[in-house]
Amino acid sequence: MTDHTGPPKGDIKFMTPFRIADDPPPSGPIPAVRQPEKSPAERAIARFSLAGKKAIVTGGAQGLGLVCARALLEHGVSCLAIFDVDEGCGARALNHLRGLDKNNEWKLLFQSVDVTNEGAVDKAVESTVQSFDGIDILLCFAGITECKLSVEYPIDSWRRIFDVNIHGSFLVARAFAREIIARSGSGTIVFTASMSGYIVNQPQPHPAYAVSKAGVHHLARSMAGEWVGHNIRVNSISPGIMNTRLTAGPSQAELRKLWLERSPMGIGDPEDLTGAVILLCSEAGKFITGTDIKIDGGFTIF
């Protein structure tokens, strides 16, 4: 073991500098209309259009990830790859999406991927890029949670939460960014954090989950700062209590009562996430990076 505590040996690596932007022309009393040749309705559609974009969604075989993957397709994404460890859910997700593709316009792929496996992640991203001839969008929804008291938390369980939620997000985002940089392209990444990264939820204890999601917030900011010079925007969303199979059923009845008492707007629907996701992936969000959007129905106000 070395006792060296000084700066790293060799060349110190710095972030890629971002380009100094041109000073925009001064705006007149009435700002110019972008794309004046289009009608107002056409401009409205174009603002949130993802026409022709190609995307990867991790954890996209069910729940929140599948709903947001579907929204990408609805807004024009032409090629979509779902990464998930559950092959059965992956097959059902593809069947569901193909059933919505009445004109057979979408190219859909499923890859069984453990996001904590560095080699598997790199291979899956590379093969997806080859199949799609490029990539533009990454949504990271792969994540796990569990409720345990800190005094009783087994360290292996704690590490597993971080492996999936933090390390898995890092590995997929890194592989995605490498492909964008190699092609001198541009792209956008949206991580899934949580309101638990801001607050300590009560009464259910999940310290590992909450700390990992706070880490996702800063992972997004760190990558945004590092990759802005490569035309890659990185943001995150922080859902509140959402109506999924994890929050439903008789076993959750008492907790749901408490959540409803504490959440000004109640419990969210998975579709409530899609507006922010489309914003961050589209032209409408082209000046947004390093930002987290809370979608919690006001839960963290109080």
From TrEMBL:
GO terms for molecular function: oxidoreductase activity, acting on NAD(P)H, oxygen as acceptor; oxidoreductase activity, acting on the CH-OH group of donors, NAD or NADP as acceptor. Gene3D superfamilies: NAD(P)-binding Rossmann-like Domain. It comes from Cladonia borealis. This is NAD(P)-binding protein. PROSITE patterns: ADH_SHORT. Pfam families: adh_short_C2 (PF13561). It comes from the Eukaryota. Keywords: NADP, Oxidoreductase. The keyword rRNA processing does not apply. SUPFAM superfamilies: NAD(P)-binding Rossmann-fold domains. PANTHER family: BENZIL REDUCTASE, CHAIN DEHYDROGENASE, PUTATIVE (AFU_ORTHOLOGUE AFUA_4G08710)-RELATED. Belongs to the short-chain dehydrogenases/reductases (SDR) family. The keyword Isomerase does not apply.
